Amino acid sequence: MLTPGFVGVPVPAGRHSLLFRYEPGYWKLWMALGGALAVLGMAFAERRWHSPS
Predict the structure, then answer these.
(1) pTM, rounded to two decimals
(2) CB–CB of 44/35 below 8 Å?
(3) Band of the pLDDT at 53, cuts 50, 70, 90?
(4) Quick one: pLDDT at residue 32?
(5) In 13-48, which positions are buried (b, 16+ CB within 10 angstroms) versus exposed (e)?
(6) What is the 3-state secondary structure (H, E, C) of 1-52?
């Protein structure tokens, strides 16, 4: 890895064919679900905190 945004591959002189593939995995899905649950939890806590007793 050259930098976080650029990948380099050392190859000898001549004609070559390279394939770079991005496979992000499922971490973005889990982060989105965790964020949604956190917002729902805060909304629930806010309603309980301000509800008349």
Answers:
(1) 0.47
(2) no
(3) low
(4) 93
(5) eeeeeeeeeeeeeeeeeeeeeeeeeeeeeeeeeeee
(6) CCECCECCCCCCCCCCCCCCCCCCCCHHHHHHHHHHHHHHHHHHHHHHHHCC
pLDDT digits (tens, 9 = 90+) for 6-33: 778 889 999 999 888 877 778 888 999 9
Beta bridge partners of 11: none
Which residue matches tokens 């991005």?
Answer: 22
Q: At 27, which amino acid appears? A: W
